[in-house]
Amino acid sequence: MVVLVAAETNEREGLLAFLEAHRGAVRRSVHGLTEEQARATPTASSLSLGGLLKHVATCEQHWTEGTLMGRELTQQPWADQHRLLDGETVADWLKQYEEIAAETDRIIRALPDLETDAALADAPWFPPNSRRTARWILTHLCTEVARHAGHADIIRETLDGRTALELVAEVNGGRE
């Protein structure tokens, strides 16, 4: 998993590379955990690592497939989007996140440019007459996933003392 993003030749590939690096940080946070550990909420927050994984996956799908492309998506209630429900596993969400990430990358690479307007630019949570482009959505996703990757680092270290750098070395076979 990439930690330090290479210098890209264009903005689109650069943003996708940064998003993938942040995705990797969230995926690493659940590396080697039991389902019980992934569901644990060891801090003052109600966040768990499994819940964060599920949230960033569903959030990415919402922004790219829903808002940008205008696809109808089924969504769970807000609170359920932040926790693993009965029958949901970390392995299932890692697989779903991989599929969602691949679809995001495919969508972004297929656009004529990053100035492409979101299909749902008039969504009720946007200020009136505001504009959301593919660039805005991709930048927002980088911010959102990076923020939650930081939360994941704190939760993981609280759970078992493992730091992000230790996990990077382990996942990458000793290379940081």
Automatic annotation (TrEMBL):
InterPro entries hit by this protein: DinB/YfiT-like (IPR034660), MST-like (IPR007061)
Name of the protein described by the UniProt record: Putative damage-inducible protein DinB
Species in which this protein is naturally found: Kitasatospora gansuensis
